[in-house]
């Protein structure tokens, strides 16, 4: 694969009272595995079901129930690992993370602390054409989600729904390679793009299917480079973890606030205490979440109910062979094969559906023209109505039909836009519409000459002016286009007007 | 490693087991006895021996990704001390 060259973005610098500060950020992204059933039970993962209806006795931790792993979830985690060019661990194991909370009936979460299924990988986070951050992935592990507690339905009670309990999550852990709030959001966007390309998670943040814990610390310029050279964390500041964020905007706001809070503490001669914090979007601030230190004592130990998970290299190879083309590769191919800009390629490869739509339009046609029409006309029109590409009333075949009519000179560019609007709103076959409504471009020189002569005869004063100032010929071209309902071939009109005016 | 009274108190609290003040010293003593017993195992030389995770050479049992369970809200809630509108109702817990 050909690589687009890129350089790293500049880290975000915040000017403090005692000098400049830089940000160091690492993320733990929890992505709900797109499986039908839960990680260790046969209950459904369907969102929005009646409370406590997607719950098996295993999920409710009834005595004597034992977990049995869902092979589909394992396959999707492996697939994600391969998508991040990561090492797949053929042997991994499950551990219990112990804590008490009403929405965790087992009293522990089954996770993979010591032996995760996926090891080190990487994500290229695009910031702008030619600018990208390579973020190292430390690991991906499989774990159970907890249930949902609702605190606002009753003044004295909390209500618990276990539908989510036991749903499989992939926790994707990055190294502290992210250097600013925008990069952090762009990283989540890129992960979501890869998750969706692979079909390993639907990436729906509103439903909580993609959530991020963000680790933030600050350091002085130069310190981060020392860390990178030695991988010694002592060069970096103390970090705080902001939990459970499910919006790109909040991620950025929270990091911004948290960095400034830490800088203020340090410049005040105080120190940052490593802790878990929550972002309050209403107040725009983070606050300490767990005051009790012992809440962090999870007493991990290997889960005695589950043998180590052993998978075969042949099975991993099979999954690898089924991987679709990923966004980075697709982007490079669009740039090289269609000669489009990296920016256009980024727009078209943002999601699988857009890319597939474009490729169908471009097949056997001019790639640049196809890119233009898909991005400027179609995406513009869809955006105006708040529609996704999947909701487009115009099929790729229809748009391709319009492009064919332009390419064969059957319609002018101006008429093409009208035709686009008709096909978009009314549907139908573009060629048939052009035929039925007489929108065909007039290339018949005789007809154009007649129209030009008519305009010249009707405007003798303008003719004199144009002879003195050839720039005014454009006015005649406009009049002729108007008279022919935009159907005259503009190049032919230009030529004939110039000839008739003797320019 | 030796377990003192404070560690015993903390372990009990983490496990949500109520231990009377007067019982903490005895509990700490029992912990120490158990740890002492386990520590004897350290005398065995296990250099180069793979940790054994199971006494039978079994492969982890797996399931296909298919919905085969659930759909019985009333059974799930049947042991709940309090349930309302399909939810478990518990004393208010909010950070």
From TrEMBL, chain A:
GO molecular function: asparaginyl-tRNA synthase (glutamine-hydrolyzing) activity; ATP binding; glutaminyl-tRNA synthase (glutamine-hydrolyzing) activity; transferase activity
Highest taxon of source: Bacteria
Record's catalysed reaction(s): L-aspartyl-tRNA(Asn) + L-glutamine + ATP + H2O = L-asparaginyl-tRNA(Asn) + L-glutamate + ADP + phosphate + 2 H(+); L-glutamyl-tRNA(Gln) + L-glutamine + ATP + H2O = L-glutaminyl-tRNA(Gln) + L-glutamate + ADP + phosphate + H(+)
Position of the signal peptide: none
Entries under Pfam families matching the protein: GatB_N, GatB_Yqey
PROSITE patterns named in the record: GATB (PS01234)
Keyword tags: ATP-binding, Ligase, Nucleotide-binding, Protein biosynthesis, Transferase
BP term (GO), one: glutaminyl-tRNAGln biosynthesis via transamidation
Known EC number: 6.3.5.-
InterPro entries membership: Asn/Gln-tRNA_amidoTrfase_suB/E, Asn/Gln-tRNA_Trfase_suB/E_cat, Asn/Gln_amidotransferase, Asn/Gln_tRNA_amidoTrase-B-like, GatB, GatB_C_1, GatB_Yqey_C_2, Gln-tRNA_amidoTrfase_suB_CS
Residue ranges annotated for the Asn/Gln amidotransferase domain, each copy included: 356-501
Subunit structure: Heterotrimer of A, B and C subunits.
Family per record: Belongs to the GatB/GatE family. GatB subfamily.
NCBIfam families in the cross-refs: gatB, PRK05477.1-2, PRK05477.1-4, PRK05477.1-5
HAMAP family named among the record's database cross-references: GatB
Function (record text): Allows the formation of correctly charged Asn-tRNA(Asn) or Gln-tRNA(Gln) through the transamidation of misacylated Asp-tRNA(Asn) or Glu-tRNA(Gln) in organisms which lack either or both of asparaginyl-tRNA or glutaminyl-tRNA synthetases. The reaction takes place in the presence of glutamine and ATP through an activated phospho-Asp-tRNA(Asn) or phospho-Glu-tRNA(Gln).
Descriptive protein name: Aspartyl/glutamyl-tRNA(Asn/Gln) amidotransferase subunit B
Automatic annotation (TrEMBL), chain B:
GO molecular-function term, one example from the UniProt record: transferase activity
Domain of life where this protein originates: Bacteria
Catalysis performed (reactions): L-glutamyl-tRNA(Gln) + L-glutamine + ATP + H2O = L-glutaminyl-tRNA(Gln) + L-glutamate + ADP + phosphate + H(+); L-aspartyl-tRNA(Asn) + L-glutamine + ATP + H2O = L-asparaginyl-tRNA(Asn) + L-glutamate + ADP + phosphate + 2 H(+)
Keywords recorded for this protein, A-Z: ATP-binding, Ligase, Nucleotide-binding, Protein biosynthesis, Transferase
InterPro entries: Asp/Glu-ADT_sf_sub_c, GatC
EC code(s) of this entry: 6.3.5.-
One BP term from GO: glutaminyl-tRNAGln biosynthesis via transamidation
Functional description taken from the UniProt entry: Allows the formation of correctly charged Asn-tRNA(Asn) or Gln-tRNA(Gln) through the transamidation of misacylated Asp-tRNA(Asn) or Glu-tRNA(Gln) in organisms which lack either or both of asparaginyl-tRNA or glutaminyl-tRNA synthetases. The reaction takes place in the presence of glutamine and ATP through an activated phospho-Asp-tRNA(Asn) or phospho-Glu-tRNA(Gln).
Subunit structure comment from the entry: Heterotrimer of A, B and C subunits.
PANTHER family registered for this protein in UniProt: GLUTAMYL-TRNA(GLN) AMIDOTRANSFERASE SUBUNIT C, MITOCHONDRIAL
HAMAP family with a match to the protein in the record: GatC
Similarity annotation: Belongs to the GatC family.
Protein's recorded name: Aspartyl/glutamyl-tRNA(Asn/Gln) amidotransferase subunit C
Designated gene of the protein: gatC
